[in-house]
Amino acid sequence: MTSTTEHGSAGIRAVAERTGLSVDTLRWYEREGLLPRVERGPDGRRRYDDAALGFLRLVQALRRGGMPVAEVRAFVRMSAEGAASHGRRMSLLERQRAAIRRQQARLAEDLLTVEEKIAHYQDLIDRGLDCGGEPVDEATAALQRRRC
Amino acid sequence: MTSTTEHGSAGIRAVAERTGLSVDTLRWYEREGLLPRVERGPDGRRRYDDAALGFLRLVQALRRGGMPVAEVRAFVRMSAEGAASHGRRMSLLERQRAAIRRQQARLAEDLLTVEEKIAHYQDLIDRGLDCGGEPVDEATAALQRRRC
DNA sequence: GCTTGCGCTGGAGTCCACTCCAGCGGTTAG
DNA sequence: CTAACCGCTGGAGTGGACTCCAGCGCAAGC
Predict the structure, then answer these.
(1) Positions on chain D within 7 A of a protein C-beta
(2) A80 inside 8 A of chain B by CB
(3) pLDDT for the residue numbered B18
(4) What is the pLDDT at residue A44?
(5) pLDDT tens, residue by residue, A78-134
(6) Which residues in B lie closer than 8 A to residue A58 (C-beta atoms)?
(7) pTM of the entire structure?
């Protein structure tokens, strides 16, 4: 039996594979207070249970949404304070929700920008033209069609 | 007449404001080859015309989509090669399109994760419960409702 | 009993993408 | 004329987020 699963908790390697974070990063997150202290097995090794994995999922959502490490840490500290910080935690998450939505909007624009450019190149290649709209010679046209 | 507009080209400050990049970053992008050489006015200052602004827009789309500076530079170098690199440039953009779409998918998941958590806190606050599902005392409930 | 493989800790090192000068020049306002 | 602004260049410095050891322990396989 490997570290993949042992009575419902996962070893650090398995978690790294599932999350896309590196083993070093997982340990570093913990040291830096982005995760509450992870429980250990009898051999002193980290065992991530469902609660830890769920928390990690939230941390990843925050980080990917562009929240700096320091702010995630602040959130985690609040989590340790118990019920009294619920309102503040919720505010922070609401700000993050707004940030994610802004990012989505920008990303959608960026996608359009890139797609437009792709269509433009496709058109030039199809018609054998250069960027100035002049026809290119056959040798160049062949190169033009050559993908990377 | 400020630098905002002068026969259809913009000064560096105006461009910085429009793009959200800093003046230093704009100059640095150029030095690092993320932008083709920007034209200068008679006083030696940068003047960004529509072509430059369009290019900059694409560069921003690539960067925000997570493309590293080195790869953007490679794209810009290809652009200088003319029509022969159209195919390769298109491939690069297609890879970027895929990257943006992956990012969109992840971001949508992250949004869900955050929204779920917000709803969870809202529920605990509404019902005056702590994380373990136990009722909290009135003093704590008041704190709980307190936003940041 | 060895060796191989994983994981642990604490600390140092690296990489990327900017960001910040110092020292200079041209233009505009008082 | 002088001062206040911009912007220019080349180079140095910074901050954030990892990433990479060295040196150790434990458990399994040969």
Answers:
(1) 6-10, 16-21, 26-27
(2) no
(3) 96
(4) 95
(5) 999 999 999 999 999 999 999 999 999 999 999 999 999 999 999 999 999 998 889
(6) 113-114, 117
(7) 0.93
Q: Is the C-beta of residue A145 closer than 7 Å to nucleic acid chain C? A: no
Binary contact (A86, B58; C-beta < 8 A) = no
The alpha carbon of residue B116 is apart from the nearest alpha carbon of chain A, in Å, by 10
> Which residue is listed with tokens 């006015």?
B41
Helical H segments across chain A, by residue range: 12-19, 23-31, 50-64, 69-81, 86-127, 138-145
Judged by a CB distance cut-off of 8 A, whether residue A117 touches chain B is yes
* Closest chain B residue to the Cα of A105, Cα to Cα: B104
With a CB cutoff of 8 Å and minimum separation 6, the contacts of B75 are B62, B89, B92
Q: Are B52 and A109 in contact (CB under 8 A)?
A: no
CB contact under 8 A, B108 and A103: no
| Digit-coded pLDDT (tens) for B41-88 | 999 999 999 999 999 999 999 999 999 999 999 999 999 999 999 999
**CA–CA gap between residue B88 and residue A145 (Å, rounded):** 8
* Closest to B21 in 3D by CA, of B51, B49, B59, B76: B59
Cβ A34 vs Cβ A69: under 8 Å: yes
The total of other beta-carbon atoms located within 10 Å of residue B37's CB is 10
Residues B76 and A58: their CA atoms lie apart, in Å, by 37
Task: State the burial class of residue A78 (Cβ atoms within 10 Å of its Cβ: 0-12, 13-18, 19+).
Answer: middle
Q: How many residues does chain B have?
A: 148
